[in-house]
Amino acid sequence: MPHNTAPHASRCTQGVTGATVGPGAAAIRLEVNGIVRALAVLPSETLAEVLRERLALTGTKIACDRGACSSCTVWVDGAPVCSCMVLAIEVDGHRVTSIEGLAGEALHPVQSAFIEHDAIQCGFCTPGLVMSCVALLESHPHPTEEEVKAAIGGHLCRCGTYPHVIAAVLDVARKGKRSP
Amino acid sequence: MSAGTRTQLQPVGIAGVSLGQAERPVGAEEAPALAPNAQLSCIGRSAPRINGHAKVTGSATYTVDVTLPGMLHARILRSPHPHARILSLDTGAAEREPGVRAVHVIEHPIGRAIEIAGPGEAGPARRQLRYVGDPIAAVAAVTAHAAQAALERIRIEYQPLPFVIDIEAARQSDAPPVFDRPVRTEVFGGPAAQLPQHGNVHGPDTSASRGDAAAALSAAEILIEGEFHTQVQTHCCLEPHALLADWRDEGLTVYMSTQFTAGIRAELATALGLPLSRVRVVVDAMGGGFGSKSRIGNDVLAAVALSRKAHAPVRLVLDRHEEQIDSGNRPATVQHIRAGARRDGTLTAVAIEAYGTAGVALGAGVGNFAQSIYDCPNFSLAQSDVFIHAGPGCAMRAPGNVPGAFAYEQIIDELAERLALDPLELRERIDSSPVRREERRIGAERFRWSRRLAPGGGQGALKRGLGMAQSHWPALVHTNCACEVRILRDGSVEVRSSVQDIGTGVGTVLAQVVAEELGLSPGDIVVRIGDTDFPAGPPSYGSRTTASLTPPARNAACLALRKLIAAIAPTLGTTPEGLTLRNGRISSSDGLHSIGFREAAGRLRTEQIGAVASRCDDYGGFGHRMGDFAFARNGLGGVQFAEVTVDTETGRVRVERVLAVHDCGRPINPRQIESQVHGGILQGISYALFEQRILDAPTGHMLNPNLEQYRILRSRETPAIEVHVLENYQGTSATDAYGIAEPSIIATAPAIANAVYNAIGVRVRTLPMTPAVILEALGRLPHRS
Amino acid sequence: MDAFEWMSPQDIEQAARAATTTVAAAMVRDSGEPAAGDALLKAGGIDLLDLMKEGLLKPRRLIHLRNIAGLDRIEGAEGGLRIGPNVTLSQLASHAEVRMRFRALAQAAGASASPQIRHLATLGGNLLQRPRCWYLRSRAHHCTRKGGDRCFAFGGENQYHAIFDHKGCAIVHPSTCATALIAFGARLEITGPRGARRAPSVEEFLLLPEADLHRENTLEPGEIVTAIVLPAPAQATRSLHIKQCETESFDWPLADVAVVLDLESGVCRKAAVVLGAAAPAPHRARAAEAALTGKRIEEPVIRVAARAALQGAAPLAKNGYKLPIFETLLRRALLAATEG
Ligand SMILES: Cc1cc2nc3c(=O)[nH]c(=O)nc-3n(C[C@H](O)[C@H](O)[C@H](O)COP(=O)(O)OP(=O)(O)OC[C@H]3O[C@@H](n4cnc5c(N)ncnc54)[C@H](O)[C@@H]3O)c2cc1C
Ligand code: FES
Ligand code: FES
């Protein structure tokens, strides 16, 4: 239930608690898209940077690097957060889901609906939007249009895909498809 | 009729209204006339985006995602002063920083107005910095962090100079000049007439004037006058400007987030003295441009220079702050308009005095909107650029026409009111476009325009208003534009062009056009684009991509098919003449010979055959031509209706609904067109209500160089939008398709402004229409002590 | 961001000992670059990382508070609620009891920033974040709050600045939650470096520029906010928080108001009226409170109170528009609060 869970509430970090590490690399363990990764990261590296640069998961996009556009949305313990404003070291021991972890063999119904409704233009904002829309439907399977708008209120889509994004999400909700 | 041409009956007219046929002269190699969409199976259908899967799964590769082994990272040092001279610059310490591989000093910046050196003058000896963010030098290092740290080691002695960032202040004769000498004027890559330049005022350009507006104005029965102010809007592409330059002995490869691979290649070749054949520009997925990624900039040249020096690929990605202050913007304008009319509404004279500022660049004109949308015998336009110490403007979605329409369509609305005419009725009288007439008719009906009340007529604090405005944009065609279609032996098909998909879905459109011609489905076509190794395609700007590229794509497919038929006819024991493709089979008219497309391809003697076609002139010719592109005979229209509510106690304007009726020739992919129109409308609303670069007058710094305090429309400001697109056949090319991206933004801000007027009965002539502006217009601001 | 060390203490004492200074103090300097070498507290990090990315802070070490057990709970306390500083804005906004009994706070938290930020941002951090003033946030402007000699908002772009109490500096307090917290009479529990404790009300905790130009609150180095305590509201309390932004989706308020009314069959026994984005600290509109107290809350009374709330307002050159907005918001909030 991503909308009600604080990303950090559930588990304590291993390894770094109490001790001081850095400024050089420190060891952390992240569960990324179901795979546990042991990584050495600088305390100053954001989760977005680590996903993109160390794990080559470039589906997570950085457009403002300040929490103001939500392009970098991933889930930490199921809750959507802007990964540009989270340090990788602070999610040590937590579960991270990025856009690459959403689809299995088949696309997630939200992804299919994005294609069907052409909720994509340049697509740079799309992975983040998909992550928010899926999270919304996980916690609110039948959102109203206003709820969809509120759930994606932090996203900036400069191309203007909002009408099609909203239609896609409402369509998935109506058809009651929630997972691949 | 000249040799090699024939005449052909083409569908002409608006589907459902006036569809008929007309004879057109066409070149010998042209594909046969294409039937109206209703009779086609791929064109006119909403095929899903071919790169949709990649985009929704995050696997699409944008320039920011490209890496190369041994890649370095570059950062740019920028001026902290709005105006300063560099007295000394020492890069020694930066070069010795750990991890630094190359330092490049920008001596001759581009992308702005350039001073003409006087005779015998080598140009100013010392680099002058003219805005906060003016690039000075660039460093390439093993990490972006190391590059950034090294920038701080570049030692510079600045001599700060007086500066001006306010357009009114800059016009004064005693204002600090941005340029000390006249600047070169360039329009669309070619020199234009040299204009006067006094202080910071460059112009006026009066070349668009006709008739005698002054005389006609003084004789006018009705006179309408108004002054309009529009703000600077920044592009805010979500993907920042980014490139990866890889200089090697054998040539230069640049991966770049660009709207025009072929143009960038040409610019780089010229700038670096390289043959075109040694420069390659590549872009796969591209995260938005809106005009700002059309040309090379200082960032591009710096990254290339660094790569050359460091013998390694160099990646340069601007951060959001840099994007906001130095990647272009839509210039601010001040427009003073006087319009004269007869009592029946006929426009007799229009005089526009406009000045605008594109910072240190030229190009703040208000476009050709007023000049071309309505007939008016006496028209005078005097537009000047005013230089200020701010980042250079550049083209942004429908440049000129967006601020131009905001002002002019309000003047027309005022004229209608003065004449006690419905704004639609006035346009019936002054707008000669039959296409817009139909658009108004459809729009008025679906929008239920008749429920519109008198201005300020609603009850209560929340007032509702309806408004409309019209769009006009030239239909542009890039004639330096080619496309290749290949049929491979296994029956697979490739379409190849250097054209880039910046989010418009041009790749999908190409697949549809080629599939239609070859009797396949769009999913069967492999689209290879975004690479100058393919035939040079058009830019993705000026709403010209589809218009330019789909005709050669269709012609190339047609030629490739003819080659296939010629190649396999002997294997069927017949001659090519009688063979045509029908229902996926190549068959003779007598029905004796028939073979499936794939099977036919399997009979090729070579692995593949193909054909390259380039864009020929529109059937019947162009309006006029400018180098590599041309203006089609007819422009593009569009009419938009807006419904707003204005909270007269808080000044908040909400756009509740927008209805847009547009034309783009033959629509190829209706849903993608709808996406484009949504984008235009939403950017238009955002321009009308929220966006604004805020510069700090005492320091010259932009105060909101981010995506937070630079406010942009998002989901909850998105109204209900309905889009109707006409099928407007003109019989002018092999596909008869034109563009939509720019026409769709032009009418939005004036439609909203007219709706706001209708709601509150007070005209708002300033953008953006923030609560502060609305409350002031309503006289609700407290008197200050 | 520049490299830094990372420490994730398990208890409050360890954290308090490790912190060398406050963020506000670390940003005060003579000129030029921020001082390096500080050890600073971090909760959600939304504000801290922002300041670091902008080059306004260069800490040597971050002390991560999020792994200290027990700071992320919301629990009953003497009829009210005791909220841990690490509780996120999204937890707060969706907490059933907060929504029921402290509606204005749930509304303020739930309407701040974006869902993505609300999942990260903590209530403690929200209260202690630095102002959003673009001069404070600009490296190019050495303003009073950073140890400079002027407030650039005067004579500058002050459309989003204060209309009250802007002597020497015209920031508005950034915390939307604080508007509601003050209206509910919330107190803080603060633990100092050597275990010293104090419990100021939020109202006392937040400072105006006339008291201190360099900080927005009385937090001292090594002090940690360990709880935000909401006293028990009276039985018939009605509360509401509303705001107006330029964009609704995601924006800082131009104006926000929180009202907490203790109503006894339509008559107001006690009222708290607080204006946010109005002053360097949330502005308690005492004249409005007085206009409501003892009255039946009906349209004419509401009008008088809304007008009274703006007593003493001194708008700057570009923010006079805030006055009609505040008056309207307050009128609407009072009306809506009494209606349900
Ligand atoms: C784009 C954007 C929009 C926003 N919109 C809004 C809005 O509308 N309304 C609003 O109120 N906020 C808004 N915010 C601000 C955001 O809510 C705050 O930055 C956030 O709440 C800070 O919480 P944090 O836990 O991340 O704090 P941190 O950044 O971790 O800390 C902030 C400060 O508090 C100190 N600190 C934290 N916890 C403690 C403690 N327990 N004891 C002592 N000191 C402590 C830190 O040292 C630091 O100085 C917005 C932010 C962004 C980026
Ligand atoms: S990149 Fe993280 S919110 Fe914009
Ligand atoms: S699709 Fe381009 S930014 Fe959203």
Number of strands of chain C: 12
Question: Beta-strand level of the residues of chain A, as a percent range?
Answer: 15-25%
Quick one: which chains have the greatest interface? Answer: A-B, 54 and 54 residues
Mean pLDDT of chain C: 96
Number of DSSP helical runs of chain A: 5
N to C succession of SSEs of chain C: EHHEHEEEHHHHHHEEHEEEEEHHH
The CATH architecture of the domain at 237-338 in chain C: 2-Layer Sandwich
Task: Characterize the main sheet of chain C.
Answer: 5 strands, antiparallel
Percent range for β-strand residues of chain C: 15-25%
Q: What strand line-up does the widest sheet of chain C have?
A: 4-5-8-6-7
Say which CATH homologous superfamily of the largest domain in chain A is assigned. Answer: Beta-grasp domain
Shape of chain A: elongated
- Number of helical stretches of at least 4 residues of chain C: 13
Bound ligands, named by name, code or SMILES: flavin-adenine dinucleotide, FE2/S2 (inorganic) cluster
Q: How would you portray this structure in words?
A:
The complex is a heterotrimer of chains A (180), B (785) and C (340). Chain A has two domains: 13-101, Ubiquitin-like (UB roll) (Roll); 109-175, [2Fe-2S]-binding domain (DNA polymerase, domain 1), CATH 1.10.150. In chain A, 28% of the residues lie in helices and 15% in strands. Chain A has helices at residues 47-54, 109-116, 126-139, 145-151, 162-175; strands at 20-21, 26-32, 35-41, 73-76, 79-82, 95-97. In chain A, strands 3-2-6-4-5 form a five-stranded mixed β-sheet, with helices on one face. Residues 1-16 of chain A have low confidence and may be disordered. Chain B is globular, with a radius of gyration of 28 Å. Chain C has 340 residues and is of the alpha+beta class. Helix content of chain C is 28%, strand content 19%. Chain C contains 13 helices and twelve strands. The longest helix of chain C has 18 residues, at 322-339. Chain C is globular and about 60 Å long. The termini of chain C are far apart. The relative contact order of chain C is 0.13. Chains A and B meet through helix 2, helix 3, helix 4 and helix 5 of A and helix 1 and helix 16 of B. The complex binds flavin-adenine dinucleotide and FE2/S2 (inorganic) cluster (FES) (2 copies). Flavin-adenine dinucleotide is lined by residues 23, 40-48, 50, 65, 85, 112-113, 117, 120-122, 124-126, 128-129, 174-177, 224-225, 252 of chain C.
